[in-house]
Amino acid sequence: MNKKILDHYLEFSTYTYPGLYQASLENELPNDIREIGLLVRKSLIHRTTLAAGNTSTNKDLRFGDMNQVPWWRQSEDDIFPTAAAMLAELYHRNQRGFVLDRNPADKLILTCRATAVLMASILKSKGIPARCRAGHAAYFAEDISEGLSWDHWLNQYWSEQENRWITIDVDGSLSLGQEFDPYDVPEGKFDFPADAWLKIRAGQEKAERFANGDGTKGTVVVLWSLFYDFHSLMNNEIIYSHNPKADYGSPAKFEKLTKEELERIDSLAKRIQEPEENFDELKKIWENEKDLRLLTGGLL
Q: Tell me: the pLDDT tens digits for 145-159?
């Protein structure tokens, strides 16, 4: 693997930078990635798990007794968007930090993006090139019967020993509905958005199979994930409410995309399909195409 690319994924972003906790992550956490993943997963509760309570995949309380979580606790993704913020609050709620027996009331209520950001922060702290990836997954136990692929984030890390990027799903590791190793997700299990977009455009995939957590379905949600994935590949793991200034993903604009605009997205997707081979081109887009780099959302 090109050293320039590996160095890029060793760099901390604004979101993955662990702040004053870097030394603790490097020296106090185990080096085994499965052990790290379990500690991270046991520190967090997904908002859908909290909403479902002690039912579905949590009927055996694998994520903890939801009755112990304060009734007013809500999703905290907007409150703790960075690894440094998550880490500070984890230690604030329990000074022992990452422990398997963390009280449910002391866990953070965070979704897959936050899990991926936190995991990337730990791996980078340990000198392992890592990145977040956004896309869709259809392998969760509670979703398989619906046949839908829901928006999802996970990680990839570079294995020097195996000379390859290994895809891991820490957020989904305890709630899979299919038999495979979440610490080495097989090719084809996760729907990377570049592949999904191009297949939909070629008539090889049904757009309505892809869904977003807010209930929206279709090609537009794949486009949202494509933008998230592009930014993540560039070490800028933007929050859900941020979108590129081009705003192709707004419902009003999306329905009126021109042939040229669709082809521009096609071109970006083709490059993202092979991010290592097209790394220099992706960086050039990142550094020059303002409407894909600058964001809207909130006060932006």
A: 678 999 999 999 999
